Amino acid sequence: MTRLALVVDGVGRDYTDKKKAVTALSEVSFSVGRGEIVGLLGVNGAGKTTLLRIIATLLTATRGRVLVDGVDVAADPKEARTRLSVVFGGDRGHYPRLSALDNAMLFGSLSGMPTRSLANAARDALASVGLLDVADRSVNTFSKGMKQRLHLAVGLMARPALVMLDEPTVGLDPLETERLRAAVAKLPGEGIGVLLTSHNLQDIERLASRVVILQEGRVSHDLPLDDLVEQSGGGTTVTVLSSEPCHAATEATEASGIRVLVSEPSADESSWRTEFEVAEWTRDSLRVLAQLWPSGVIRDVRVQPVGLEQVFKHLAGAESGASG
Ligand SMILES: Nc1ncnc2c1ncn2[C@@H]1O[C@H](COP(=O)(O)OP(=O)(O)OP(=O)(O)O)[C@@H](O)[C@H]1O
Q1: What is the ipTM of this complex?
Q2: What is the mean pLDDT of residues 45-55?
Q3: Does the Cβ of 83 fall within 6 Å of ligand 1?
């Protein structure tokens, strides 16, 4: 049986703050398979940073255990570190005057890779993040996105079982974001497990097949992305742009499972924007919606399945409501 990239088993962590015990994590359990991308989500203070630091061997757990590729991070942190790469990103962490190839080779040699295989491994790693054609350019000529992909390439030099990515697309423009995502999307094909945290929920929506949500130090959800969306009400968001406001959202619309979410002038104020949540999209839905305006005033209709962003807002709202 292949080993899991990551097993988090009943992990708890207490801090002492002004002599009072603070429980940041209690009984956290989940796993990441090799070849799987798992998104880790949580509102601020839910315990993500604490958990990532424990997995990265930077902090010890008060209870429970963490295995990276079968190695217990507390019992053998040195060995565990050879099997995981943490990509926190940012502008720092490279030798700016060296080329991308030299940077990758240098970090490969620091991780104990034999000298004769360094150049080939570095070229492979750069190729997998789309930087092979600029391998000989010095890093201080790189854009932010290229540096971020170089971080990932360097992380791949040690052939890790687990890659942890924390906010990988922060500060990147849309094109660079897409390139970074494309590089991450390749990792499962190489048998690597990925734990991805990001406040950009589109990263998680686009890349992860499973989502683990931490709430107040516990795992509140651990399930495939599609199931999460479905469990939280599923549905479809419909946005209608019209030349006149929609006045007639009535009991009949509500009875058809259609709820008005937003009704306001559009950003450029040239039209009116109404957003609806449609519980179950049927042939009838469009007919019911169309009846809300006099003929000829609808300019555009956009239909979108409910995304992770809405689901997460819904869950986070429920949590803060519950905790007062
Ligand atoms: N060194 C510390 N001493 C005391 N309490 C701490 C310490 N570090 C974290 N905590 C507390 O533990 C809880 C979890 O913190 P953590 O930073 O892990 O959350 P997070 O989900 O990463 O939040 P954020 O997204 O804001 O970083 C919080 O209540 C926090 O106040």
Answers
A1: 0.93
A2: 93
A3: no
For atom 1 of ligand 1, which residue has the closest CA? Answer: 15
Name the CATH architecture for the domain at 235-305: 2-Layer Sandwich (3.30)
Rounded to the nearest 10 degrees, the angle between the axes of helix 100-110 and helix 144-156 is 30
Tens digits of residue pLDDT in 195-223: 999 888 888 988 999 999 998 899 988 98
Q: For 189-226, give one letter per residue: b (16+ CB within 10 A) or e.
A: eeebbbbbbbebbebbbbbbebbbbbbbbbbebeeebe
Give yes or no for residue 323 having a pLDDT over 80. Answer: no
Q: What pLDDT does 5 receive?
A: 97
Whether domain 6-230 has CATH 3.40.640.10: the reply is: no
Is the pLDDT assigned to residue 253 strictly greater than 80? Answer: no
Domain residue limits, the chain: 6-230, 235-305
- Ligand 1 centroid to 72 CA: how many Å? 23
Q: How far is the CA of 22 from the centre of ligand 1 (A)?
A: 9
Burial of 132 (0-12, 13-18, 19+ CB in 10 A): middle
Q: How confident is the model at residue 324 (pLDDT cuts 50, 70, 90)?
A: very low
Pocket probe for ligand 1: among 20, 50, 214, the residue whose CB has the most ligand atoms within 8 Å is 50
Q: Is the CB of 47 under 6 A from ligand 1?
A: yes
